[in-house]
C-alpha cells in the first residue's frame, strides 16, 4: 500500500471513530438508575385538565363528553386534593355541601407533588405514558410534552426514576412508526432526557436507556408485528438515537397465544429480541382466589423469560372500577378489600421470583386503579364513587407500594400478610 493510501486509510478510520463517538453522545453511558431490577415503578397517565389551566383541553379525562356535572363524569375515584398547589372548583359537592375540587396535570405544581409523594413513600419512579394518538400534534401533544418536562424536572428534584412508555393503542399500522421515531428523537434532543451522566434519573437497564412499547401482540389490533419490529430496530440499533433497552407490554396470555393474545407464533420471536417482557394483568382476575390461579401463569412466564434470557416484570394493581365511564358495569367491580387484593399480587409476584414490579397505575382514577392519595370524603349526588374503608388512610396504597419496594430489595423481611396501615401523612 502506498504512503498516500495509508494516510487516507488512517484518515477514514479516524472519521469513522469520530462518527461513532458523536452517535454515542446522544445518551450518557450510565445513569443514577442503572437497572429496573430491584425497583417498583408505576405508570403515570398525567392526562387530566381543567378549563382554566391553559391547556385548551377542557375537563379532559375528568369527563368524556358534555359538561362536567353530577351524573356526567368519567372517574370512579376522587383524589385527595388538600396538598395541591392549584385546584379547580367543580359543580360537585361533598356531603357537608362544600364544593369539591380537582387538579390539572398541566400544572407543574401537580406533577411536583406527585413526585414528592413518591419520595416520601419510597416509591422508586414512574413510566410516563405517551399515547400514540396524543403525540401526533396540536393541543394534545403540547400537553403531553409539558407534562413530560415537568416530570423530568421533578424526577431530578426528588431523585426518582423516570422512563418513557409509548402506549400503542390506536396506532395506525406503519403510518405512525415515523411519527413515534421522531417523537423519541424530539424528547432526546429537546429535553435531554438521557444525556445527564451518572447523576441523571432516566431509568437504564442492561446499561442502556429503557423505552417501553405497550400493546404488543394483543388480539384485534390494527398494527402488525412488523411495525413493532421497525420501532424496536430503531430504538435498539439507530447509531444516533438508538442503543436503548426495550420493554414490550404484552397480553396476559402471551405465552399461550390465547385469550387476549393474537394467535401468532412470531410474537415469541419478537419477544426474544426484547430486554423486558411486561404482561398486562389488569382485569384478568377479580379476587384473591382467582389471582392464586393466575400466579401459575406468572411462574410460567418467569421460567420462559429465564430460559430465553429476557427479563420479566409483572403488573400489580389495587382494584378496578369504571362505572361512571360505562354505567352498565357495577361500581367497585374489582374490590380493593382494604389493600389485601393488591398485597396478594405483590407478595405472590415477589415470592415467585419477580425482580421488579410495575404498578398500574399511579394516577389512574378513570378505572379506579390509582395508588396516590384518595379522598375519604368523595362528592355525593348522582355520580357514585368508590370509597376507601373507614380504617384506610388516604395514603394507604402509597404506604403499601413503598413497603413493597423495600421488600423487593430485601430491606425488610418478606411477608405474605399485608402490613398494617399507619396513620396517614
Structure description:
The chain is of the alpha/beta class and 425 residues long. It has one domain (28-408): Glycosidases (TIM Barrel, Alpha-Beta Barrel), CATH 3.20.20. Helices cover 32% and strands 13% of the residues. Strands 1, 4, 5, 6, 7, 8, 9, 10, 11 and 12 form a 10-stranded mixed beta sheet that branches. Helix 8 links the parallel strand 11 and strand 12. Helix 2 (108-121) runs parallel beside helix 3 (138-158), helix 7 packs parallel to helix 8 and helix 8 runs parallel beside helix 9. It is globular. The model is unreliable at 1-23 (pLDDT under 50).
Topology record:
Layout: H1 3-24, E1 40-44, E2 88-93, E3 99-102, H2 108-121, E4 125-131, H3 138-158, E5 161-167, H4 177-190, E6 204-205, E7 208-214, H5 225-237, E8 245-251, H6 266-271, E9 276-280, H7 288-307, E10 311-312, E11 315-316, H8 340-352, E12 357-359, H9 396-408
Parallel strand pairs: 1-4, 1-12, 4-5, 5-7, 7-8, 8-9, 9-10, 11-12
Antiparallel strand pairs: 2-3, 6-7
Membrane topology: Single-pass type II membrane protein
InterPro entries: Glyco_Hydrolase_99 (IPR026071)
Signal peptide: 1-23
Question: TL;DR?
Answer:
The protein is built from nine helices and twelve strands. It has helices at 3-24, 108-121, 138-158, 177-190, 225-237, 266-271, 288-307, 340-352, 396-408; strands spanning 40-44, 88-93, 99-102, 125-131, 161-167, 204-205, 208-214, 245-251, 276-280, 311-312, 315-316, 357-359. The strands form two sheets. Strands 1, 4, 5, 6, 7, 8, 9, 10, 11 and 12 form a ten-stranded mixed β-sheet that branches. Strands 2-3 form a two-stranded antiparallel ribbon.
Amino acid at each position: 500500500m502506498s504512503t498516500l493510501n495509508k494516510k487516507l486509510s488512517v484518515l477514514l478510520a479516524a472519521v469513522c471513530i469520530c462518527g461513532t463517538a458523536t452517535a454515542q453522545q446522544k445518551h450518557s453511558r450510565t445513569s443514577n438508575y442503572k437497572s429496573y431490577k430491584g425497583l417498583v415503578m408505576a405508570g403515570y397517565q398525567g392526562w387530566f385538565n381543567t378549563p382554566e389551566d391553559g391547556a385548551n383541553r377542557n375537563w379532559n379525562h375528568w369527563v368524556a363528553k358534555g359538561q362536567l356535572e353530577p351524573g356526567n363524569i368519567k372517574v370512579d375515584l376522587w383524589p385527595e386534593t388538600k396538598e395541591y398547589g392549584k385546584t379547580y372548583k367543580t359543580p360537585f359537592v361533598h356531603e357537608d355541601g362544600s364544593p369539591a375540587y380537582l387538579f390539572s396535570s398541566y400544572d407543574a405544581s401537580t406533577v411536583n407533588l406527585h413526585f414528592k409523594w413518591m419520595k416520601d413513600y419510597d416509591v422508586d419512579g414512574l413510566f410516563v405514558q405517551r399515547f400514540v394518538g396524543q403525540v401526533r400534534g396540536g393541543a394534545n401533544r403540547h400537553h403531553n410534552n409539558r407534562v413530560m418536562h415537568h416530570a423530568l424536572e421533578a424526577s431530578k428534584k426528588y431523585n426518582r426514576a423516570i422512563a418513557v412508555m409509548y402506549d400503542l393503542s390506536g396506532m395506525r399500522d406503519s403510518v405512525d412508526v415515523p411519527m413515534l421515531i421522531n417523537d423519541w428523537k424530539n424528547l432526546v434532543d429537546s429535553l435531554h432526557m438521557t444525556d445527564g451522566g451518572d447523576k441523571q434519573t432516566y431509568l437504564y437497564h442492561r446499561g442502556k436507556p429503557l423505552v417501553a412499547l405497550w400493546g404488543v401482540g394483543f388480539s384485534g389490533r390494527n398494527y402488525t408485528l412488523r411495525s413493532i419490529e421497525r420501532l424496536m430496530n430503531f430504538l435498539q440499533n439507530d447509531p444516533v438515537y438508538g442503543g436503548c433497552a426495550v420493554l414490550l407490554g404484552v397480553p396476559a396470555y402471551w405465552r399461550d397465544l390465547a385469550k387476549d393474545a393474537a394467535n401468532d407464533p412470531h410474537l415469541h420471536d419478537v419477544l426474544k429480541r426484547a430486554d423486558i417482557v411486561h404482561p398486562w394483568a389488569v382485569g384478568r382476575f377479580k379476587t384473591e382466589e382467582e389471582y392464586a390461579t393466575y400466579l401459575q401463569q406468572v411462574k410460567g412466564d418467569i421460567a420462559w423469560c429465564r430460559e430465553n434470557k429476557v427479563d420479566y416484570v409483572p403488573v400489580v394493581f389495587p382494584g378496578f372500577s369504571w362505572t361512571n365511564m360505562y354505567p352498565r358495569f357495577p361500581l367497585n367491580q374489582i374490590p380493593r378489600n382494604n389493600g389485601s387484593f393488591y398485597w396478594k399480587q405483590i407478595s405472590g409476584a415477589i415470592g415467585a421470583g419477580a425482580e421488579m414490579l410495575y404498578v398500574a397505575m399511579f394516577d389512574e382514577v378513570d378505572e379506579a386503579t390509582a395508588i396516590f392519595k384518595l379522598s375519604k370524603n368523595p362528592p355525593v349526588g348522582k355520580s357514585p364513587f368508590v370509597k376507601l374503608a373507614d380504617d384506610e388512610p388516604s395514603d394507604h396504597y402509597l404506604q403499601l407500594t413503598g413497603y413493597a419496594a423495600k421488600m423487593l430489595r430485601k430491606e425488610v423481611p418478606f411477608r405474605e400478610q399485608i402490613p398494617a396501615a399507619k396513620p396517614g401523612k
